[in-house]
User: Fold this.
Amino acid sequence: MKKLLSMILVAAMILALGCTAFADGGTEINFWSMWNEGEPQANVIAAAAEAYEAETGIHVNIEWKGRDINTLLTASLDAGDAIDIFEDDFNRIGQVYTEWTYDLTEMAEAAGYEGYACFNDQSIAWAGYLNSITEQPQVGGVFYNKDAFAEAGIEAEPTTWAEFLDVCAKLKDAGIAPLAQDGAYTNFSFYYHLVRYLGEDGIAELRDNGGWAESEGAVQAAQDIIDLVNAGYLADGAPDEYPSSQTKVGLGTAAMVVCANYVTAEVNAAVGEEVNWGLFNYPAVDGGAEPTAAYAGANSLAIASYSEHPQEAFDFIMFLVTGEWDQKMADEAAQIPADPNNTAPAALTGTIETLKAADKPMTWCGSLNTHPAWGDMKTMFTELFEGKYETGADFCAAMDALY
Assistant:
């Protein structure tokens, strides 16, 4: 028993001496991650941290906080907890945690960091400086089955609404339903069309003050969807129960779906094989307000404003989001790379190009989802795709009745 106790004490002393030696002679940065240990993203981050330490001698202490990290960060940052790097949704870092974020502008310039302009510009617009680095971007648009396009003889991706309708006509003539639509995403699909006419500022105006029926853009956007339905360009049963309709893109009976990039993994899993995916930005409309904006979101990385090791923390961020380790993240987690010079997985072909072309990131359904009647609005958007309104004016009048 005494021998066992002595061994335990010796082991404890060695461990303590090792920690003391590290604390005295090395640099440690604390990283709060939004992933759970064992997830693909977490595995890549952990491996990158080990490689970074081997290369620099700097230890990255990772705490896996999970998806609810946002419930912890405000109080922890305000209390000055030991955090150098933290990871969360791009929007929250830019709008909620700004007062606790380090200005990354000079370090980014020195490192030659570029990233995706739409995220960088929005970060600066919110904070007044670059306060986060994109780690895991996502993008929305029109995802399509390239094999279906080829079968219908379509050689070019449409960029305007008129071209999009021509594509729909060719697909229908070839016996392929042009557009899949699940009820879960009718709100997103109509928002994407509406924002082309009004822009997000115009949508915010409708949210706050109503006036849908007086808005020529809103009336025309609704009429376009009605015309789309009446032309028979939706898949049979659409809007369908999720994910029944989007799966038809993988089966080849429908060609396109308006969604974010995770739809590719969902459909691939449903059909049990890799679909030959393509993506193009949602088409522009005549006289529209935001012809090239794209829905874009990201998980991003920020440095706490009070960090004692901001340069070391920034260097690890660059290590993670550029080059080899970013490509590994894209491959193993099946996501868009944070480095525009890297390669997206085959299922996400076109996503990098769409993000590069986007002049600003649009949010999910704009600001409409903050309206008290959002639940009723979502129901009405589904009804719009079900063909329950005779005209765009009828739909807009019904929207005004919610105010």
In short: The longest helix spans residues 2-25.
